Amino acid sequence: MEPRQQQFSLWYVLLAVSAMLILQSVLFTSHVETLPYSDFKVLLKAGKLKDITLGEGAITGTLNTDGIENLLPKQQIEEMQRQGKGNHPFSTLRVNDPNLVQDLEAAKVRFVGQADNKWIARCFRGLFLHCSSLPFGVSSSSG
């Protein structure tokens, strides 16, 4: 009798995990409005933003779409209305704005700071580099 060989590749596991993450992001996440920073400032002054989180590279929070007709471009408002009225999560890239905290305090908006977690990206990068140095398929013999 010939020995039976099993072949296992870590690439299959990475592919399955990636597929599950993509499926989760498509099915279970709400639509986040991406705003230009200038629109963020306009909405902040108009009192349409709340629960702001200041990350190292991004600002996120909640946008109230009621009464924003004259504040944003018509196309963007129509897109938001297709998602429904009321509150929507938003995100904008953080720029170097020395007056940001003063503007948030003037608008009486609750805000918190948040450090970006980079350890997950570092782990995946290390795993990817390690896996890319391995042969494509690892064979093992079982007797």
Keyphrases for this structure?
single chain; 143 residues; alpha/beta; Signal recognition particle alu RNA binding heterodimer, srp9/1; 5-stranded mixed sheet; 7 strands; 41% helix; 24% strand; elongated
Characterization of the model:
The chain has helices spanning 10-28, 37-45, 74-83, 100-106, 119-132, and strands spanning 4-8, 33-34, 49-54, 58-64, 87-93, 111-113, 138-142. By secondary structure, the protein is of the alpha/beta class. It has a domain at 30-110: Signal recognition particle alu RNA binding heterodimer, srp9/1. The strands form two sheets. It has a five-stranded mixed beta sheet, covered by helices on one side. A two-stranded antiparallel sheet has the order 1-7.
Using DSSP, what is the number of strands?
A: 7
Which residue ranges are poorly predicted, with pLDDT under 50 across at least 5 consecutive positions? 138-143
CATH architecture of one domain: 2-Layer Sandwich
The major beta sheet can be summarized as: 5 strands, mixed
* CATH secondary-structure class of one domain: Alpha Beta
